[in-house]
Fold this protein.
Amino acid sequence: MTDSERTFLPAAGRDIFLPLYDPIVKLFGGDAAREALLAQARISPSHRVFDLGCGTGTLDVLIKGRFPGAELVAFDPDPKALARARKKAARAGLAIQFDQGFGDQLPYPEASFDRALSSFVFHHIPAEEKGKTLREVHRVLRPGGEFHMADFEGPEDGKQGFVSRLLHSHAHLKENSAANVIALMKEAGFSEVAKVGRMSKLFGAVAYYRAVK
């Protein structure tokens, strides 16, 4: 199956919601959730940074604006979301590389990045692709590189917010239990894997993870 034949869950759950995605997430606390992830990642100006599942590019504009010397590569399968991300970066005058593709087939050499980040995308990835995607993230990180991820908690871990229930099915969120996420990261080869934080927002409870190559 070619990439053009593969399906994916859009950034907003459905294409019809995409124009509303940024304002809704901002209204319900998404900016604070991303700020917490960025603080956790401890990016330096010399780092090469990879964003898995960049969506409409809000996190990327934040990263590049805060660390203009860092080289940033953002990646997503959704061409409509990427078009919005590129326009957002252009308006801000920021040089960000946006690439289209699927996380289980990253088009980058081994040891390409110092940091990999992912915000609110892991629950989008089909169960059968999660492990391979994490192995790819592990592959493209340099030794000692870190993977930092924020996503909705699974139903076992906390109460789901209105926006997460509206945009995402119970089945997708069920796979996001901390135990499942941590186990998959360890199976992918990561060490020092841990859930390192939690934030309750109106759009749902957010879990933060850190893992090291």
About this structure: The first helix runs from residue 18 to 27. Confidence is low (pLDDT under 50) at residues 160-170. The two ends are 30 Å apart (CA to CA).
